[in-house]
Amino acid sequence: MLKISKLFFVFLIIFSCTKNEKIDVVSNESSHPKLILTAQGVRDIRAQLGNIPIFDNSLKRVKEEIDAEIALGIDVPIPKDYSGGYTHARHKRNWVVLQKAGVLYQILDDEKYAKYVKDMLMKYEEMYKTLPLHPKTRSYARGKLFWQCLNDSNWLVYVSQAYDCIYNYLSEEERNKLETNLFRPFADHISVDSPQFYQRVHNHSTWGNAAVGMIGLVMNDQELIDRALYGIKGVNLDKKAKDDDGGYLNKDGKAGFLANIEEPFSPDGYYNEGPYYQRYAMYPFLVFAEGLHNVKPELKIFEYKNGVLLKSIKALLNLSDADGDFFPLNDGQKGMSYYNDALVTAVDISYHFGKQDPGLLSIAAKQNKVLLDDSGLVVALGVKNGKTKPFDKKSINLSDGSKGKQGGVGILRNENIELVFKYASQGSSHGHYDKLSFSLYEKGEEVIQDYGLARFVNIEQKGGGNYLKENKTWAKQTIAHNTVTQNETSHYNGKYEIGSQNHPDLHYFSFTNKNIQVSSAKVAKTYPGTDMQRTIAVIKDEGFEKPYVLDIMKVVANKSNQYDFPYYFLGQVLSTNFKYSIPEILKPLGNKNGYQHLYLEGFGKSNKDNTKFSWLNNGKFYSLTTISNTNDEILFTRIGANDPDFNLRREAAIMLRRKNTKNTLFVSSIEAHGSYSPVSESAVNSKSNIKELKVVIDTLDYTAISITTLNGDTKLFITANTEASKEATHKLTINNENYEWSGSYYFK
Fold first, then answer.
1. Are 209 and 291 in contact (CB under 8 A)?
2. Is 277 a known active-site residue?
3. Catalytic one of 293, 430, 503, 597
4. Strands 737-742 and 745-747
């Protein structure tokens, strides 16, 4: 606990002085600080210090961190490295240290922090005015401090806050020197000098817009502020040009911060690049928005597009599992969570400027730190005053697309089971070719996994910490996901040009019955002449220990094809009800579209109407039951073929292969059941409870599946394939028995 009393800080405010101008607490465009930490906020924070535990502890940790950095001295090396290399890491560390040191100066009123920031900024000024482009040439938009303009923008977003905090500490001559030789040229380089980076709708340009806009707000430079909000005037880029990831630079001609709010976010707050990049982009979105709110309140930025920026925070939090880890949709690194500093920012700003949802306070309490600014103070007071309530994650459907008409993501939650059903749009250049895919979790642990990205972020030994070639050859390919691949070719032929023009459509979702959570979506044009529809239900039934998954994939094609349908399970194989052989020599399953990275480890054929497979993972049992025929092939595969640098994780899948088939139906169940204790060496409820799955009817309009348990109980699930509105009424006769219901599905 920081041992500083309120009386001591009152003493500081009254009697402490520096050789420079003191804080102007009048709120106007010329007062500083004014971006994230405000002059009034400084007064409020000082008045509460020693009385707000989570804030005081956060301040104590930051003070210890920055004091240690100051003791080490200033290092501003000449740039030369990719991500993870020393110069990259040092400049990255410097931007964090500068921002925090600036805040400490304001809160503690200790001149040593302001002097440290000034001295480092002057070293950057001395270096930057003669600095050429970064020597590494990989990026489509090279920076100067870093190998890409993106990281240069990161630097300026943070450093603009530091400059704001020491603005009044500096003399006019010092400010002019920094602005003329460092900040204005820096802003120009990442914008007018790099329009291919800046003039687009993408998380890269969001950082660029925020960087230019925030330094513009500090400098009171309206030209930079307008450039940030609306893009560069008079710039016309090649509409066919692409970035390093294959995404268009500026196909639609839209640019600027407002366009980057308008286009990527759906009305529900889903960000089209996925939660991993939403987490990354939320920091510049929110800190620039807060700066605009404080300096340019007439813009009403938090009301823009029906308040989607604040709405997006709850969407993002709902895109995390029970442990707070974000679901790795598209290019997403596993393990990224709401404990990341960007989410501390998001939670605090969302609470402060939103409706002060007490559920957000529970996330803040778990994060155990707050921002050292106005919003962090409000959150800290809310936690202290006992306003915290649990953030209740429930089943939710999040639309995709700027108007919510480009598919979406459904999250089905039932007790400890979480299922993520992805039927979203391509997701910009970070999207994967995995329409109608899913992943499954129990208590935050992966059961059926999505691979995520192929990258070791900021680990220099692995491709300079950047995307590996396997991200394109494996992670983005359809076969890397839990969905249907046709004729060993990825959806949209793995072409961004095609994928970005098409998307699945929601058929229905139904979460009103707490025992049955259902989502259904359709997609056309993933392959010419082939349509797919997937309906997934998470069902809590009294005959089962835990909720189970019913998965129905309907494929309608105009010709015969080969269909491959993998389930990327995690854990140890326990048993099967089919015979299989193990090859003596491992060989790749194919030679392209991701198949070249799969070893064939086992091969069998179905000999029953139901194929069953069980595995053990983290002390829990799981069983897959799938309706099959005698021509179906069952393949055991493992990732890692044609991977000489061991860039890919060696993980397994069971794959259903159906050849020479036109229209078809894949129906499976996944049960979570029982447990195993290595301490007591006891296995409880280790076997599947499903005796049989059966297709009772499958027509254009309806698909009906019966589920029979070991004790002979049979339930019937019927999904409406065409008319599935909540108001729709249905009458269906099956085996001389009449069924009538209203809505999207029937289960009884």
1. no
2. yes
3. 430
4. unpaired
Q: CA–CA separation, 214 vs 259, rounded Å?
A: 17
302 CB-near residues (< 8 Å, 6+ apart): 289, 293, 309, 310, 353, 354
Catalytic residue among 116, 163, 198, 277: 277
Instruction: Give me the residue label for tokens 């209740």.
Output: 392
Q: What stretches in the chain show pLDDT beneath 70?
A: 1-30, 245
Q: Cα–Cα distance between 159 and 95 in angstroms, integer?
A: 6
Instruction: Please give the backbone phi and psi of residue 329, each rounded to the nearest 5 degrees, phi first.
Output: -75, 145
Q: Report the distance separating Cα 612 and Cα 623, nearest Å.
A: 7
Q: How many CB atoms lie within 10 A of CB 228?
A: 27
C-alpha to C-alpha distances, 432 to 2, 343, 429, 471, 499, nearest whole angstrom:
47, 24, 8, 10, 9
Which structure tokens are listed for 739?
A: 């069924």
Catalytic site residue 430?
A: yes
Q: Are 633 and 579 in contact (CB under 8 A)?
A: no
Amino acid, single-letter form, for residue 469: K
The predicted-structure confidence for 622-671, as pLDDT tens digits, reads as follows 999 999 999 999 999 999 999 999 999 999 999 999 999 999 999 999 99
3-state secondary structure 166-177: HCCCCCHHHHHH
Nearest of 629, 421, 660 to residue 534 by alpha carbon? 421
pLDDT in tens, 414-453: 999 999 999 999 998 899 999 999 999 999 999 999 999 9
How far is residue 667's CA from residue 611's CA, in Å, rounded to a whole number? 11
Contact 215, 156 (CB under 8 A): yes
Predicted structure pTM score = 0.91
d(C-alpha 369, C-alpha 347), whole Å: 11
